[in-house]
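Quick start: what a row looks like.
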Amino acid sequence: MTKINFELFFPALRPWVMNLVNVWPAYIIKPQYANWEVLHILSLTLLGGTAILMNLRLLGRGITEESPSEVYRNLRRWQDVGVIGIVVSGILIGMANAEKLYDSTAFVVKMCALLGGVILTYGASRPVARADGAVPVSARLWFILGGLIWLAGLVIFATGTLVNVGLYHVIFAAALIVLIAAQGRLRWIFLIGLLVIFAVHQWVTHVTYADPFDLKHLDPANKVFTWIYVVWIAAAAAAQTFMASRNKATPALAKLIAWSTILVWVTGAAAGRWIAFE
């Protein structure tokens, strides 16, 4: 299988990339790499956290005492600070560690998630929140573009050698969001079903095939259960989105934008952590 990294798309850039560490300010940043990475993580947490709060409100959860437009107004400047922090710190630590990132599949996923996340947040979810759930035509177009970029990143994440396990972070986050967003009987049905799937998964991979090196059977089994998790979570999310939208002002498309914008930042964070494991 072909390794997806930036060298695949820009092979002629390797000499330039390898020399970046010698360019100002990379050689100053390199000894302080850990400090700048902390700033990068904090910026991602700030942006992702505020985006999650804003989009949970579109899902009818979280800070329900305020309207979506009020939540947006209270959080938008913090989102801007998060974006600036991510871009500035990302460029600096990227220059100081350019060769590793150039060869990294997870870094490609992170860039897809970052670009898709900025587009979904600024082009789709913020305008929708500002309009208290109404979805203008421009937001629909930005949602399609950002969603396609994010989905491309997910495909690379799922098929990338040594990083595909990181996709479980996104799946787990999606399950938690469904538990938060779902209400009443749907929440219990989803939770019980999820626990049953998990129990059967553990039985198959630890009892039926108890040998941890029996990859001939364990790999296909894990892939099947991964798809079962995804289908179950997606079905519950769809039920929450469309059933709840029948009786509430927030349309289903606004909630779909909210789901996507939350998970795109989870994807970026997960991919960033898996860069070290390649």
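That is the whole record. The mean pLDDT is 91. The first helix runs from residue 6 to 9.
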